[in-house]
Write a structure and sequence with these properties.
This protein is 23% helix and 31% strand. By secondary structure, it is an alpha+beta fold. It has one domain (12-174): Peptide Deformylase (Alpha-Beta Complex), CATH 3.90.45.10.
Length: 182
């Protein structure tokens, strides 16, 4: 297992759509190794999710997990979820503004409107079909990672770029938390 290099904003791979993974290749050693490396990379950098594009792999694979994550201390737990070839459908017209960050846009946060409930259809790492309904934060993360697989970053979804903030300034001015070394 390896920690992979994460592409940062400006690298063309983040703007390219990922290709679907043929179902008969999901259980291959190569795909399983990529999934394991993506999980290790997401955990190493305290991400809530990671998409193939972010690690220079144009494959429709994303991993999601939140468990005592210091970048998202108030987020509800999300069990490790491997999403392959996702199709995301809103199941409500309701959207909610929320702060998002991204490993490919380090040390930044911005407000993004996302659907509060979505249906996810995909394959898991065993190649089994999965269909689930996700709400609130889990729905937000699914939409964020699926956007990556379509070459979209959260900045593209921001309606008001005035909320785009460096993490230190976000803590000070948006959350009221003062850093000790400023």
């Amino acid at each position: 297992m390896a920690i992979l290099k994460v592409a940062r904003l400006g690298h063309p791979v983040l703007r390219q759509p990922a290709r679907p993974v043929p179902v008969d290749e999901i259980r291959s050693a190569e795909t399983q190794r990529l999934i394991d490396d993506m999980i290790d990379t997401m955990r190493e950098y305290d991400g809530a999710g990671l998409a193939g594009n972010q690690v220079h792999a144009l494959k429709q694979i994303a991993v999601i997990e939140v468990a005592a994550n210091p970048r998202y201390p108030d987020a509800p737990a999300i069990p490790l979820t491997v999403v392959i070839n996702p199709v995301v459908t809103p199941i409500s017209e309701e959207t909610e503004d929320g702060w998002e960050g991204c490993l490919s846009v380090p040390d930044m946060r911005g407000v993004v409107a996302r659907y509060t409930a979505v249906r996810l259809e995909c394959h898991d790492r065993e190649g089994r079909r999965v269909e689930l309904v996700a709400k609130d934060f889990f729905a937000r993360v699914i939409q964020h990672e699926t956007d990556h697989l379509h070459g979209i970053v959260y900045l593209d979804r921001m309606r008001d770029l005035r909320t785009l903030s460096h993490l230190v300034e976000w803590n000070k001015h948006w959350l009221g938390i003062r850093q000790q070394d400023d």
